[in-house]
C-alpha cells in the first residue's frame, strides 16, 4: 500500500470491478486503486470448472453467507454464496453466458426514464467485451448472429470468452427432445433477445478451463500498468463522506482494514462500489447512507437518509424436481466408484473434457409456466445428477434434476446490517414465495416439468418422480413442496437500484450515481432495477461496460475543459 491518493477507487475485484479496472486504467494519466477483501485467484479449484463444488462454502473463496429463515421455504435458511477472491462470483459461479431478454432492458429504460438502457442501446456494450467461439472461423456465424455478437473480421473480439460445453449426455439429449415434443422449440443461441427454446448452455470457459474476470480483464493488462494498484486481503470498513462548501456531500475516500491496521485511501475523482448486491448496500449502510430508522437502530449516524439501500432484493429461486431413471448413465453412477472417478480425472487431464469440465447445469430451457403468460417466464437448469442439497453427496441411484425458476419474481426482500461492525455478516432476507403470483408460478412450473418428462423421448428410461412426488397435485401442495425443495441460483440483484427522480426508493440515477452523494457510484448487480430473465453475470459485465464509459467521460471533463 505504497500510495493512498488515486483518481478512482474501485471496491470489489469481482465481475464488474475487474472490467472497470481494465477500462479506467487504460488512460495512463488516471490512477486506479482496486480493493479486494479476498485473496488472489491462485486456488486450483477456481480454474477447474467442476471446482465450484470446492469453492462454494470455502472461506478461501466464499463470504459464507446464509439467508434468514424463510417463511416461503417453510422455515429453511439457504446457503448464499458470494465470491471472495479476484474475479468474485465469476470465480465460483456456474459459468453460464446469458444476456437475458430484450424486454428486460426495455423495462430498465422505462424504470429509469433513460433510453440508453434499452436493448438496442445496450447490445453494443455486450458485444464490446465478448469473444465468441462461433466467430473463431469465418462462415460459422450467419449475418444475424454477427449483428448480435460482433464480427472478428472487423476486430470486435473482446476479452470475455464464450465457448460450447465440452461434453454431452444421452439423458440430456433425450430431455431436450422431450421438451420439443412438449412444444418448446430447439435453439442454439439463447442470447438474441428472445431466449425461448431448449439447448445446451454456452459457458465462460477457455479450452476446458474456467474463464473468470481476473484472467480476462486484470492479468493480461492491468498488472503491467504503472497507474494501477491492487490491494488484496483488504476489506473496506467505511466510505468517507465530507460536507462541501455548497452544503452538499461528497465521497472522498475509504477506510480499509488490511488485517493489521486501518488505512485511509483518498479519491480525487470517484469511489466506485462494485462489491455486489449484498456487500454494496451493507457498506453504504455502515457509512451512514441508507434507511434512517435502520441506521439509528444499529447505532450509526445518519449522513443521508436513502430508504432504498438494501431494499428491492430480487433473486431466482430454483425448484429442484428429481427423477429416478434406469438404463442410462448419470453422474450419480459414473462418479459412484473409485474407478469411475479415476476415468473422469483421466479424461480431464488428457482432453480437458468430461464431467470435470462441466458447468453445474448443462442443458437449459426457457418457456411459459402457463399459456396465459405473454413471454417465457421460467428457466430450466437440467443436470444428469441428483443430491439432497448443494454440497451434499450425490444420490446412490441414477437420476436427473430438472430445476426450474421463475424468471420475474414479484417477491422482494432486503439486505440489512445487523450492527455497526463491518466484519459482521448482514441479514439477507430474500422473502421467497411471498406473493400469490410467485406461488402460482411455482405450482404451474412443476406441472410443466411433469409434462416434459411424460413425453415419449424419455419413456425408455422409465423416469419416476422422486421429488416432490407425483402424489402431490393441488396448487397449495405444489407451492408448499416447492418451498421444501427449492434453492437459490445465486442471482441477487436490485438492492441499490437505479431509477427516475420521482422514485423515492431509487438509490441511483440512470448513470449509477448515488443520489445525494457526489463522487460515488454503485456498479454491480445491485444497481439493476429489475432482475434479468436469465443468469446475471453477463448483464453485470454489460452494466460495468456502460458505466466505464460514463466514468471515463466524467474523469476527462476537467482536463479537457
UniProtKB/TrEMBL annotation:
InterPro entries, A to Z? FAD/NAD-bd_sf, GMC_OxRdtase, GMC_OxRdtase_N, GMC_OxRtase_C
Start and end residues of each Glucose-methanol-choline oxidoreductase N-terminal domain: 276-290
Keyword Transit peptide assigned to the entry: answer is: no
Q: Which cofactor does it need?
A: FAD
Task: Please provide an example of a Pfam family that matches this protein in its UniProt record.
Answer: GMC_oxred_C
Keywords on this record? FAD, Flavoprotein
Q: Which Gene3D superfamilies match?
A: FAD/NAD(P)-binding domain (3.50.50.60), Glucose Oxidase, domain 3 (3.30.560.10)
**Family, similarity comment:** Belongs to the GMC oxidoreductase family.
Protein name listed in UniProt:
Choline dehydrogenase
Give the organism, scientific name. Answer: Verminephrobacter aporrectodeae subsp. tuberculatae
Amino acid at each position: 500500500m505504497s500510495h493512498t491518493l488515486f483518481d478512482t477507487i474501485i471496491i470489489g475485484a469481482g465481475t464488474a470491478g475487474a472490467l472497470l479496472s481494465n477500462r479506467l486504467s487504460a488512460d495512463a494519466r488516471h490512477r486506479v486503486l482496486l480493493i479486494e477483501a479476498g485473496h488472489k485467484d491462485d486456488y486450483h479449484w477456481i480454474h477447474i470448472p467442476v471446482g465450484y463444488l470446492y469453492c462454494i462454502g470455502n472461506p478461501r473463496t466464499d463470504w459464507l453467507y446464509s439467508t434468514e429463515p424463510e417463511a416461503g421455504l417453510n422455515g429453511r435458511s439457504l446457503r448464499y454464496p458470494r465470491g471472495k477472491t479476484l474475479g468474485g462470483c465469476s470465480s465460483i459461479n456456474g459459468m453460464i453466458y446469458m444476456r437475458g431478454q430484450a424486454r428486460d432492458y426495455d423495462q430498465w429504460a422505462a424504470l429509469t426514464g433513460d433510453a440508453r438502457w434499452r436493448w438496442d442501446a445496450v447490445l453494443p456494450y455486450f458485444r464490446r467485451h465478448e469473444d465468441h467461439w462461433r466467430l473463431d472461423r469465418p462462415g460459422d456465424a450467419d449475418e444475424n448472429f454477427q449483428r448480435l455478437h460482433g464480427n472478428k473480421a472487423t476486430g470486435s473480439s473482446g476479452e470475455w470468452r464464450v465457448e460450447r460445453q465440452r461434453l454431452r449426455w444421452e439423458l440430456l439429449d433425450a430431455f431436450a427432445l422431450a421438451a420439443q415434443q412438449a412444444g418448446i422449440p430447439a435453439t442454439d443461441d439463447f442470447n438474441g433477445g428472445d431466449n425461448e427454446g431448449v439447448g445446451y448452455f454456452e459457458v465462460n470457459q477457455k479450452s476446458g478451463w474456467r474463464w473468470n474476470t481476473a484472467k480476462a480483464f486484470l492479468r493480461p493488462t492491468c498488472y503491467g500498468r504503472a497507474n494501477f494498484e491492487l490491494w488484496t486481503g483488504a476489506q473496506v470498513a467505511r466510505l468517507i463522506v465530507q460536507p462541501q462548501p455548497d452544503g452538499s456531500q461528497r465521497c472522498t475516500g475509504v477506510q480499509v482494514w488490511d488485517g493489521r491496521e486501518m488505512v485511509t485511501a483518498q479519491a480525487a475523482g470517484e469511489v466506485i462500489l462494485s462489491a455486489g448486491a449484498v456487500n454494496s448496500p451493507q457498506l453504504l449502510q455502515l457509512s451512514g447512507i441508507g434507511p434512517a430508522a435502520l441506521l439509528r437502530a444499529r447505532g450509526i449516524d445518519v449522513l443521508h437518509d436513502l430508504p432504498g439501500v438494501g431494499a428491492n432484493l430480487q433473486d431466482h429461486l430454483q425448484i429442484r424436481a428429481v427423477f429416478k431413471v434406469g438404463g442410462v448413465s448419470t453422474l450419480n453412477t459414473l462418479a459412484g466408484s473409485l474407478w469411475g472417478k479415476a476415468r473422469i480425472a483421466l479424461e480431464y487431464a488428457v482432453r480437458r473434457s468430461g464431467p470435470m469440465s462441466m458447468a453445474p447445469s448443462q442443458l437449459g430451457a426457457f418457456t411459459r409456466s402457463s399459456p396465459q403468460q405473454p413471454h417465457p417466464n421460467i428457466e430450466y437448469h437440467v443436470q444428469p445428477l441428483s443430491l439432497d442439497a448443494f454440497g451434499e453427496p450425490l444420490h446412490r441411484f441414477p437420476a436427473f434434476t430438472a430445476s426450474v425458476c421463475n424468471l420475474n419474481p414479484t417477491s422482494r426482500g432486503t439486505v440489512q446490517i445487523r450492527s455497526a461492525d463491518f466484519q459482521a455478516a448482514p441479514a439477507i432476507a430474500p422473502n421467497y414465495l411471498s406473493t400469490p403470483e410467485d406461488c402460482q408460478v411455482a405450482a404451474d412450473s412443476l406441472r410443466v416439468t411433469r409434462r416434459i418428462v411424460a413425453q415419449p423421448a424419455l419413456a425408455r428410461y422409465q423416469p419416476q418422480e422422486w421429488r416432490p412426488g407425483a402424489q402431490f397435485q393441488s396448487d397449495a401442495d405444489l407451492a408448499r413442496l416447492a418451498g421444501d425443495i427449492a434453492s437459490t441460483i445465486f442471482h441477487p440483484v436490485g438492492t441499490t437500484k437505479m431509477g427516475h427522480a420521482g422514485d423515492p426508493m431509487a438509490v441511483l440515477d440512470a448513470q449509477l450515481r448515488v443520489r445525494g452523494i457526489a463522487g460515488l457510484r454503485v456498479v454491480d448487480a445491485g444497481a439493476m432495477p429489475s432482475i434479468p430473465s436469465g443468469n446475471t453475470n453477463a448483464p453485470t459485465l454489460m452494466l460495468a461496460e456502460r458505466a466505464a464509459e460514463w466514468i471515463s467521460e466524467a474523469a476527462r471533463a476537467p482536463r479537457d475543459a
